[in-house]
Amino acid sequence: MMNWDDARFFLAVARCGTLRKAANQLQVDQATVGRRLTALENSLGSKLFIRTPKSFSLSPLGESMLADMMKMENAVQAIARKAGLCGNVRIATTDTLAEAFVIPALQDLRQRYPAITVTLLTALNITDIAYHSADLAIRGARPDDDELIIKRLATIEMGLYASPHYLAQRGMPVKGEQLRGHDLLMFPRELVPRHWSNFGGETLFEPNAVLQCNSQLLLRSATRSGLGIGLLLSCLADHDPELVRLFPESKDWVDIWLVLHPDLQRAARVRAVVQALETSFSAHYD
Fold first, then answer.
1. Which residues contact 38 (CB under 8 A, 6 or more apart)?
2. Residue ranges of the HTH lysR-type domain (predicted)?
3. From its phi and psi, is residue 228 left (phi > 0), alpha (psi between -120 and 50) or beta?
4. Which pLDDT score is estimated for 228?
């Protein structure tokens, strides 16, 4: 029996013409598209595409199935609308969590539920979910409000980073020496007080905080520019060629919490967004 997941892989390849482009559209790797397509063809006992070195074109069977597959797509979207899988969901989070986890989640969500739209609000300060300023929030501080639904999404890794330019000018810091003699880029003390006594595993005493900023995205930019040493989200900074990891064995772990108003927990569109977010976080931190 053909299912919608098979159909969306078929339609992506038919529309894009290559496995690579289809994988980009579906937000999966190219090998996954190839495996799914081969499995579908094996189940049908016939080829759906004519393969050439440069592209995939529909076979006679694929041509005959295209209209039916598109009807299935339209039917799924119609069912989603009737089931409440449509409308807007407002998410409050931080800039780096949005970049690392929320945007990838929304790419998957868009493929599955195109009638759901999202308003993304990036802020470090506590969002008042209780008064519906947002439908859900993702943040690194667990709220104390017992009336809200609170769930830990993941425990993410942070580490200390500097630019090659900074290290050439100031030298590599020595582990265990409290980062003395080095410039630090930090969240304001009132927002993250623990970082002012322990910064990525380094005990601090009167830290030389040359920049305080409530945006980690800007702290990362300042670190890249050579302004000082920053404590950054590792899943982003580790892949940044403009940053060097300091003391890789020292890791700062932060719990990330999903906060949801109980009135919305049964809304289909919100449940779909939550599921996409959980999948995105678990891809990095199981």
1. none
2. 2-59
3. left
4. 97
* Phi, psi (degrees; rounded to nearest 5) at 199: -115, 95
Of 251, 186, 185, the closest CA to residue 223 belongs to 185
Check residue 249 and report its DSSP letter.
T
Task: Answer whether 55's CB lies under 8 Å from 22's CB.
Answer: no
Task: Compute the distance between CA of residue 7 and CA of residue 13 in angstroms, rounded to an integer.
Answer: 10
Q: DSSP E strands: which ranges in 191-283? A: 198-199, 202-203, 209-212, 229-233, 244-246, 252-260
Asked if 114 contacts 229 with a C-beta cutoff of 8 angstroms, the reply is no
End-to-end CA distance of the chain: 32
- pLDDT tens-digit readout, 217-266: 999 999 999 999 999 999 999 999 999 999 999 999 999 999 988 878 77
Tokens read off for 20: 């690579």
